[in-house]
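Help needed: design a sequence for this.
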């Protein structure tokens, strides 16, 4: 992960994951977290574990992690976002608007991560860390050392 944008998106991903963890925990205890509640408590807990695996895959620059992340959050938050937009009326409370905002953020972050991975040109061409490339990928130095070693022709009797 060499890009600043990737670091920022992963940090936002972790912050959103921690936020969802707090929401699930407070909902499990029966407390209200500013009107924000999980859509499905069981699915929310399963999604927290799925996102942990996706975080590791995204940090390793694997597109499959971003696709799983988008698919999971898209299915979970997408239906709530669409249902919330269809039910917009004067009777809507602050909590329903807050849930719609969280659902929108839950859709935007995976899409941004997927676009970041797809648009990164160095993901496949320079996947290794630059700190060790000078040693493992320095063919010019290896050829020079081999040519020098070949000129030392000592005869043994």
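Sure. Designed sequence:
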């Amino acid at each position: 992960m060499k890009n600043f944008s990737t670091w920022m998106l992963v940090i936002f991903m972790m912050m959103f994951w921690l936020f969802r963890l707090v929401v699930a925990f407070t909902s499990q205890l029966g407390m209200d977290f500013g009107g924000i509640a999980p859509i499905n408590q069981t699915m929310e807990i399963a999604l927290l574990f799925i996102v942990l695996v996706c975080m590791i895959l995204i940090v390793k620059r694997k597109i499959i992690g971003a696709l799983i992340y988008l698919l999971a959050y898209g299915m979970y938050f997408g239906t709530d976002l669409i249902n919330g937009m269809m039910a917009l009326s004067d009777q809507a409370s602050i909590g329903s608007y807050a849930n719609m905002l969280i659902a929108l953020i839950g859709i935007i972050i995976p899409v941004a991560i997927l676009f970041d991975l797809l648009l990164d040109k160095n993901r496949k061409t320079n996947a290794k860390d630059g700190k060790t490339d000078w040693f493992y990928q320095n063919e010019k130095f290896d050829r020079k050392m081999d040519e020098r070693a070949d000129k030392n022709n000592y005869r043994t009797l």
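DSSP finds seven helices and no strands in the chain.
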